Structure of 2'-5' RNA ligase family protein:
Amino acid sequence: DAKVLEKLQIACRQIEPFTVRLDRLGTFGGAKRGVLWMYPTSFRGEVSQNNDAKEPLIHLQACLQDEFPYCDTQQKVSGTFNPHITLSHFVNLDEAFEAQSKIEIWWDTSIEFLVDEVYLLCRKGDGGQFERLLTLGLGSESQLRVHNPPLPFDFM
C-alpha cells in the first residue's frame, strides 16, 4: 500500500545512519523462563552511556511508532522500547544468569557495525525463514527498494 510505504520513508528519513556496538549482555525472566540478550548501543560520534532517546536506534523506533501508533507490541509490557538481541531462551532465569557468567569469562571484545538501512521482514508460518519485503535507507536521501518476490538472507 502506497500510504504505508510513504509513512515508512517519513520515519526513516528522520534518522541519519548510525553505528551499533554489541558489548553488553543481560537477562530477564523468572522461575519458568529465562532469556539471555545483548544490548545494541547505538551512537553517532561519542557513545551515550545511558539508555535514553539520544540513542539513534531508540529514536528510529520512536519515529516508526509515531507513524504507526497501533504497532505498540514492544511497549505493552514495560511501557518503553528496550532494544535487545535475544541470544537464547532458558528454562529459568537462573540458567540464563549462568550462561551470561560463562560467556563473560571469555567475551572481552565488542562488535561494531554501521546501520544505514533497515528491512521490513516477512515470514510464512512460525517455523519459516524471515525474508526481506523492503529495504529502507536511512537519512534525508534514503531510498526504498521493494523486493518482489521477497529476498531470503544468504547462508540461512
About this structure: Helices lie at 2-13, 56-67, 93-106.
